[in-house]
Amino acid sequence: MKTKSREMNFLYIPGAIFFVLSLTIFCAASAYDWDIQVFLAQAIQYKAAKAWVLFMDMWGVFQFLPVLILFLGVIWETSFVYFQKYWKKDFFRNNEWVVNLYYLAAFTLYVATTFIWLDDAINSDQGFGVGNDALIVDSNEYKIYAIILVKIFELIALIAITYYLRFKFSKREDIFVQEYWVDSLKGIFYISASYIIVILMKNSFGRPYYYSTIFNEILNTEVAAKGWTYNPDVLTWGGGQFGVDNVEYKNWWEPNDFLNNLENWFKGDVEKTQTNAWWNVDFPSGHTTSTFCVLTVMYLFINPNKERKLNKRKIAFIYIWIFVVLTSMKFALVVYRSHWWTDVEFSTFFGIFMFPFSSMVMNRMLRYFINHFKTKNKFEKVMGWAHISKRSFTIYTYNGLYHLKVGKYLYTKDPTEQINKVMKFYKINVMLKKDTLEQALGDHTN
Question: Which residue numbers delimit the Phosphatidic acid phosphatase type 2/haloperoxidase domain (predicted)?
């Protein structure tokens, strides 16, 4: 028990420090957002910076897709094994080729998104003519090469995931007892909930890009130097009657004409008519959130209660992703002039918060449905126990090998009645006694 607690401290303690640090930086940056942006955005004039920001921009678009395909693949493979073993009909036992349909769909999606994004990058007009990238005020070749490079990495990841799921994971004997599908649903919940919240906040605030707040200066300097012609009827980057003026700067806490822009939530061509850059929907950062979504893959590989220990390789992956990929993403987005520092910093502490929140919600929700399913179908008795501390108690279920956390609850006086209610709610009908519990626990608890 102590060993595992110390082991997980390599995540919990740095995670808590990182959360507090990110929140502190966010609060401080709220007063200096403009100054930070002016300083960092100067780097966009260099070719290397343009290549870097476009690569990170495309990386942020596609990076979580392989993880999502992995989670769905785990659920798909688990379901297929279940139907083969327990379904009364022989369809899945006699037609194993059906399982490959999922991977066919995944690679079809990959090919489709590759062609769609490349076609858009090559043929789209961002207001300055086909072949020109508005945000970097340069050729769209940077974006085309970035898409190709990111898509190569994505293809490698998809091939590795397909091989692992088909030839390794599907052959495991502990698929059901380890409940990998439960951990996959945690990851899917994290990704889905995070994006729903981010999209709602983006539309609610409608914060303009730094690019739009200095658009008139960009027209008179960078665009003029290129000899480009701006057509606001294609894409309106600026403000004023003709879409060439600077848009008003908005702090992150200032909604951009919220009531009048409610109707724009469901319009498809608002970027052609808007003159306050609401369509930039800058706050918070979806790309930063996407970077955290990749880390949800650790739900499958870290769980001390299921003997999935936190080792040096897993720690190294998490730390490298945070300090290299996340940091690069945040700076790139600000240099790109498509985000303010408060945008990316909010998404940072929000992303950290969503990990324990997603685990808490899904542990309770999924354990409820799993236990009710077992009880209804009379598969087995649901065993469980309660760990009581001074002001709270934690409920666990026991599947014969592992102790699975349901949730932690606060109490004021005697917790016995509340524990019984929680046990009943989760259909835990066999309460492990002290002597049985000590024998069963072994090294499986936190």
Answer: 244-360
